[in-house]
């Protein structure tokens, strides 16, 4: 039976991440907590809005209501990477060669490892950001589609259009597809080779969490009373194919999904705080955490895929050891 080591904190969990195999919990009040031979913490922001691990998984990139972008390392050092005045930094993304992307208002920024900053203005607000798995290419989710920028050159951006408000964005691990979440209850996708559209609709709620399986064959999503998992094995992705539905629980909505690092398994967090793991092949489920006080808002597997860190909107956090 899996065992749970709880960590009860007092603020909404924005992101959880494993840095050097140490679980970190970034909360909305601006404090980043870690479990490293005891409970330790550092205040990174006056109000934290967004966070993600860097590609080496040795520091956490954070953005806040104080207009700052920080890097929090495993020894608790918080280093300022950029500051844009009293504006909210609403999205961050970790890129190759130490680059960091972040967004505020209508502008997306890329900060290179040498500290140089480039700005990419948009007609409407720049929402979610993602770097391509290969090369220096930044995708920005925006109103009526997504834009691909090439920050290291003066190459013309590529505009991908689809009506509606696009709120977050992700490249498939092979770089062939770009997927956005939308303000409506749907995902949209583009096959980058030919611009072919993919529409993934029918959700009862907004999709706020999505996660690619280890080899990119599947995309797990929240927004329904089950984890909706789309197949991406075919050259046109999920078009004409039905998704898997894992961990169906009556009317209780899935709020977070996180695919395992090596196995075709997803951790699934729910609106009531429960966490399950479900296997794609046979839909077998394992209960990882019983329901708690509030919705699961963050999940992350460690490198070995043996432990799962979780965080909830009520500040209930912790680590599940699958092996017990």
UniProtKB/TrEMBL annotation:
Residues 262-322 form the Anaphase-promoting complex subunit 4-like WD40 domain. It comes from the Bacteria. InterPro entries: Apc4-like_WD40_dom, Quinoprotein_ADH-like_sf, WD40/YVTN_repeat-like_dom_sf. Pfam families: ANAPC4_WD40. Gene3D superfamilies: YVTN repeat-like/Quinoprotein amine dehydrogenase (2.130.10.10). PANTHER family: TRANSCRIPTION INITIATION FACTOR TFIID (PTHR19879), TRANSCRIPTION INITIATION FACTOR TFIID SUBUNIT 5 (PTHR19879:SF9). This is Anaphase-promoting complex subunit 4-like WD40 domain-containing protein. It comes from Nitratireductor pacificus pht-3B.
